[in-house]
Amino acid sequence: MDYRIGQGYDVHALREGLPMWLCGVRIESPVGFVAHSDGDVAIHALCDALLGALALGDIGHHFPDSSEEFRGIDSKVLLARVMAMVRERGYELGNADITIALQAPKIGARVPEMRASLAAVLGVGVDSISVKATTTERLGFVGRGEGCEVWAVALLRRG
Ligand code: MG
Questions:
Q1: Mean model confidence pLDDT for the chain
Q2: How remote is the CA of residue 38 from the centroid of ligand 1, in Å?
Q3: Angle, alpha carbons 56-121-87 (nearest 5°)
Q4: How far apart are the CA of 109 and the centre of ligand 1, in A?
Q5: Residue ranges per structural domain of the chain
Q6: Which of 42, 62, 68, 132 has the fewest CB atoms inside 10 Å of its own CB, making it the most exposed?
Q7: What pLDDT score does 72 carry?
Q8: Ligand 1 geometric centre to CA of 15 (Å)
Q9: What is the DSSP pairing of strand 91-101 with strand 129-134?
């Protein structure tokens, strides 16, 4: 098959005093993500999209949160490992599209940095990476500021 598509989804809870990383970019915020890793929920969703495209399971299978090896790990390292798996199987990333639902802080101005960060880790052009940010109009757990929700899709083509 020449093309494969995958989707990924992740949620992390927010808590005061923790760091907030999104797409490998540090966001100034009074709240950050509860996680075993650095909590980069956007990278986690993207990893699951890439793994899903090749039916390779999910991020929790490859990098279990029960493992000390992955405690506090920079999620960019996980993304690089996932992309290496993709290339080992003869595929290249066509494009990826990520939607981040977060009520606060506002992150729209950081989107160019996020795209550049992901493109650098993946070894692709920045025009292959889309990042979009939205609120949920104060509805639901995202709207109440309890967490962040991310969806990602990725298209792979045989390299
Ligand atoms: Mg996660």
A1: 96
A2: 9
A3: 40
A4: 23
A5: 3-158
A6: 68
A7: 86
A8: 15
A9: parallel
